[in-house]
Backbone:
């Protein structure tokens, strides 16, 4: 089935290459503009081809709906409020799970990084549990918590815990010991040492952990919501599948992609702001007035 | 830079001092000190007295016990036997009157220059940090990140950080070793000026004999954990002329003992 549709797309590709120069000539002036538009050419061409393939019946619209019908589904669900409702439900789970799992991971990472006995006691156990794919816990989690909110938040928490824990621990452990010795010689107490030397020094690593964690966060949520939920983007798409509303399924996938992108942009913005001391970010700092 | 320093000096009314530094420093004394690491003895029966306000240089090969000596004075390590005392009191741990300048600047990369100088965050630390940065010739850099500074500028910040709390003993552990020759001479002049004005007792550890003769009142050569030579450097200050034949002669004598 998919092969057939791919073949269809390929036949159309030659048609696109014929059309391409025409739209290229339309701006008419300057290589600069063409340079700027070039990255958009391929996605737009694909969307146009897709639309044509879907409308002309080359691919089954029921399986791969046209972009316009996805856009129509977007508009429909936006107007009746269900898109916002499901997105908020998903985001809420994601954020609660991130705060709980990430918070525990951060605290344990700091404690184990600073205090050897804690590391000896906890780290090998954590490493052992880490190797269990957390999605394998789903049957158990459903038995424990049923299919309510707790189950999904639990799964997200477990998913984000490990990347945050690992990177916080690593960041704390790899602080330059010379700087720590200097701070001791200059009389910093324990509190000042942690707040002004160790945590800021571990921050680049912690933020790497956060970005990994955000990936795991959405991944876990998609799976958890498709298995058992009464709202959320995952529920929305699974429900749509039952009624063969492929446009809504596709819309759900796009919403997940957008949410992931938004989370990533937010982390990058945080990085630029709090790591402005880092040589790698200084060019960008100068760029902003 | 040097000009700015001199003029700020003259601007103060009663700074027209005689060459002898005012005694703000504390005397330093090591008696019969031994330091072992396991079976390895790094210092044996080591005794040394440094009167308040003097500038002592300790010269020796790598592994000769210089850094161990410094860590004992700073209170970072305890002697295996014998006593180290500062101002008459035995050293027991870190002492806020003693400041240590490391071989590397060891600035905190995520704190701005002014915050690095005021690392201990004492009362009115921003003002004192600014004033001390002015003393080391970096008055307009307090809001810069350390990563944009040159090697010499980083050591100046480290020097300001050491001096901001008005220490009475300054320990220098080869702080200029990694700098280029011109920057090193600039740093020597800066250090001499600050020492003359403030009079802290100074112990400089170095393997650069010329540096020791250019800066110190007295040079001790440390060899295999014991004093191999102990001579006074009786040259008038400020010492600007490195090719002084007396200095060259002293350097030769020290080199023979190393």
Residues:
């Amino acid at each position: 089935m998919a092969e057939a549709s791919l073949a269809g797309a390929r036949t159309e590709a030659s048609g696109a290459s014929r059309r391409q120069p025409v739209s290229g000539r339309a701006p008419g002036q300057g290589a600069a503009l063409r340079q700027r538009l070039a990255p958009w050419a391929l996605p737009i061409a694909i969307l146009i081809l897709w639309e044509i393939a879907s409308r002309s019946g080359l691919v089954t619209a029921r399986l791969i709906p046209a972009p316009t019908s996805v856009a129509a589904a977007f508009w429909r669900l936006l107007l009746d409020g269900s898109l916002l409702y499901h997105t908020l439900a998903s985001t809420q789970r994601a954020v609660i799970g991130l705060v709980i799992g990430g918070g525990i991971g951060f605290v344990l990472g700091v404690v184990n990084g600073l205090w050897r006995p804690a590391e000896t006691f906890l780290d090998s156990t954590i490493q052992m549990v880490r190797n269990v794919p957390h999605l394998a816990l789903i049957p158990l989690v459903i038995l424990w918590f049923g299919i309510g909110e707790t189950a999904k938040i639990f799964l997200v928490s477990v998913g984000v815990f490990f990347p945050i824990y690992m990177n916080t621990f690593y960041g704390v452990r790899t602080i330059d010991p010379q700087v720590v010795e200097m701070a001791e010689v200059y009389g910093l107490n324990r509190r000042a040492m942690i707040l002004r030397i160790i945590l800021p020094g571990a921050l680049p690593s912690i933020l790497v952990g956060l970005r990994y964690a955000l990936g795991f966060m959405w991944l876990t949520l998609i799976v958890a919501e498709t298995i058992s939920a009464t709202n959320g983007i995952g529920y929305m798409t699974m429900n749509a599948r039952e009624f063969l509303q492929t446009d809504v399924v596709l819309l759900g996938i796009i919403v997940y992609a957008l949410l992931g992108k938004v989370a990533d942009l937010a982390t990058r913005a945080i990085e630029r702001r709090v790591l402005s001391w880092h040589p790698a970010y200084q060019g960008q700092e100068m760029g902003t007035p | 830079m040097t000009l700015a320093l001199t003029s700020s000096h003259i601007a103060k009314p009663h700074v027209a001092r005689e060459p002898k530094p005012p005694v703000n420093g504390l005397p330093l004394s090591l008696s019969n000190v031994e330091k072992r690491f396991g079976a390895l003895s790094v210092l044996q029966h080591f005794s040394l007295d440094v009167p308040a306000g003097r500038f002592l240089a300790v010269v020796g090969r790598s592994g000769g016990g210089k850094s161990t000596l410094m860590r004992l004075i700073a209170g970072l390590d305890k002697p295996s036997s014998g006593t180290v005392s500062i101002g008459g009191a035995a050293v027991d741990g870190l002492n806020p009157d003693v400041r240590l300048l490391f071989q590397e600047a060891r600035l905190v990369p995520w704190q701005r220059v002014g915050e690095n100088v005021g690392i201990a965050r004492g009362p009115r630390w921003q003002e004192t940090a600014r004033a001390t940065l002015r003393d080391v010739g970096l008055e307009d850099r307090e809001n810069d990140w350390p990563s944009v500074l040159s090697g010499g500028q980083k050591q100046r910040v480290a020097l300001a950080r050491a001096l901001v709390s008005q220490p009475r003993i300054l320990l220098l552990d080869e702080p200029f070793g990694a700098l280029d020759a011109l920057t090193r001479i600039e740093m020597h002049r800066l250090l001499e000026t600050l020492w003359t004005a403030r009079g802290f007792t100074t112990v400089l550890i170095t393997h650069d004999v010329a540096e020791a003769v250019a800066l110190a009142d007295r040079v001790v050569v440390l060899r295999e954990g014991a004093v191999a030579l102990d001579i006074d450097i009786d040259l008038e200050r400020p010492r600007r002329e490195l090719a002084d034949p007396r200095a060259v002669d002293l350097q030769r004598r020290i080199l023979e003992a190393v």
